[in-house]
Amino acid sequence: MAKLWGGRFTGENRSAHFTASIGTDQRLYREDIKGSIAHAEMLAHQGIISAEEGRHIVDGLRIIEAKIASGAVELTEEHEDIHMNIEALLIEEIGTAGEKLHTGRSRNDQVATDMHLYMKTAIGTVLKRLRDLQDAVVELAERHSMVMMPGYTHLQRAQPVLFSHHLLAYFFMLKRDEERLIAARERTDQCPLGAGALAGSSLPLDRVMVAEDLGFTSLYANSMDAVSDRDYLIEFASASALIMMHLSRLAEELILWSSHEFGFVELDDAYATGSSIMPQKKNPDTMELVRGKTGRVYGNLTTLLTMMKSLPLAYHSDMQEDKEAVFDTLDTVTACLAITAEVINTLHVHPKRMASGLNDDFSLATDVADYLVAQGVPFRRAHRIVGEVVRYCLAGGLSLSELTLDTWQAFSPAFSEDIVNGVDAASSIAGRKTPGGAGGESVKAQIEEARRHLASPY
Ligand code: ARG
After folding, report:
1. Which of 137, 255, 300, 349 has the most crowded Cβ, counting Cβ within 10 A?
2. Does any ligand 1 atom lie closer than 6 A to the CB of residue 24?
């Protein structure tokens, strides 16, 4: 089969399998055809090709699109990538007019255009999945808005919080993820077509017409930048890496919480799996895989950054490697967002287990220190006093709620009657009235903010 670029070559090419990208970039066939149709219509409009040739090309491209969709044609490594496969099919389909399609164009601006088109839509899909997960998180928080649980630092019980407060932290993480993706989409919304190989064209191309046709908001202002920019892909990969980092933290918590030791939650049977040997096992595989897949998304980001590092302007074949990394990122992040939303939507919550021990685990010690502060004791001194109380309790196997007034007062005269049984988890949480704090009022405000966000366009 003759190569489209065969003119200056003699003999047989023996590297087609190595240089081909068709296995990966065939995914772009719709965008490639869309871009070619816009290009052909512009060429005809500008009188660079005849109106009839323009029509032939457009009709031919539509036929080829249908054939690729139905699997009626074979895409081959012989034609390297999706761009040359489609062009070769077009020439086969309509003859001479097909040979005019590539006028004023290079695969360099073509592949860039395809990827911009593809990613604009794809980011929209990820945003939708992100919203679904945000929605699931807020729903779950709302369903269990007053359930108490231990809050941890260093994975040690720190202070009691509301389960809803804990969950909503993820909502706000996901909201930032959304902002990053929207920003990445904005920078994807630029048309490279007309940049040619790197220098633009001496033909009277109408770049504005093509960009408008393809639904782009703006044009690349510099043709060399247009063909060699992969920032928008790296931004997507980077925003995706952060999404996965967030998902991996949530996944890890769900895995921990569904262990026998915690027993806070249970994944629905639909999203867990059994063991091939231990009949009693119910494994949180879905969440383990989300946690595990985070690595490949980080890896893809590194691939892209490394691929671009030190590349002189303008296009290089190195950049052909971008697609595998970007598509894998896209598929992984989309699937992980979807499964996590389903897990959250069906999660079984055990409020009693979450709240158990909250009054006896010393996680109210900070509240006791705050009590002393309210009596005028300097905080650092209050901290030491309560530390001593805790040490005393630990030595005697006691909890704070078991101490008598006399005992309290032995540590500080600032304690009075109301300290006996005066601190409990519920009132500790209710007392956290600072904006953004773990108290019920704050959680209510957060849920309202989340609901407003979920009603906003994206
Ligand atoms: N398959 C190539 C890619 O994905 C298309 C652009 C090729 N351009 C070139 N001059 N080899 O990057």
Report:
1. 300
2. no
Distance (Å, rounded) from C-alpha 349 to C-alpha 143? 10
Under CATH, domain 365-454 is a member of which superfamily?
Answer: Fumarase/aspartase (C-terminal domain) (1.10.40.30)
* CATH for the stretch 19-103: 1.10.275.10
Report whether 31 contacts 88 (CB < 8 A): no
Residue 113 sits at the vertex; the CA angle it makes with 112 and 114, to the nearest 5 degrees, is 90
317: Cβ below 6 Å to ligand 1?
yes
Place of tokens 């033909």: 203
Strand partners, 271: none
CB 213 within 8 A of CB 305: no
Q: Does the fold of domain 365-454 match that of domain 108-355?
A: no
Domain spans of the chain, in order of start: 19-103, 108-355, 365-454
Nearest CA, atom 11, ligand 1: 317
- Hey, what are 361's tokens? 């685990």
Identify the architecture of domain 108-355 in CATH. Answer: Up-down Bundle (1.20)
Active-site residue among 50, 218, 259, 275? Answer: 275
User: 0.90 exceeded by the pTM?
Assistant: yes
Q: Is the minimum distance from the CB of 102 to ligand 1 under 6 angstroms?
A: no
| Residue count (the chain) | 458
Binding site membership of 32 for ligand 1 (Cβ less than 6 Å): no
154 is annotated as an active-site residue: yes
For the chain, the maximum distance between any two Cα atoms, rounded to a whole number of angstroms, is 102
pLDDT band, residue 6 (cuts 50/70/90):
confident
Distance between CA atoms of 62 and 39, rounded to whole angstroms? 14
Tokens representing residue 90 in the block = 């077009």
Are β-strands 190-191 and 148-153 bridged in parallel, bridged antiparallel, or unpaired?
A: unpaired
pLDDT at residue 72 greater than cutoff 80: yes
- 275 noted as active-site residue: yes
Query: At residue 149, what are phi and psi to the nearest 5 degrees?
Result: -150, 160
Average pLDDT on 405-410 reads: 97
Structure tokens at 243: 């999404």
| Distance in angstroms (rounded) separating the CA atoms of residues 298 and 302 | 6
Task: Report the pLDDT value the prediction gives residue 1, as an integer from 0 to 100.
Answer: 60
Which residue in 412, 411, 370, 419 sits closest to 391, CA to CA? 411
Residue of minimum CA distance from atom 12 in ligand 1: 320
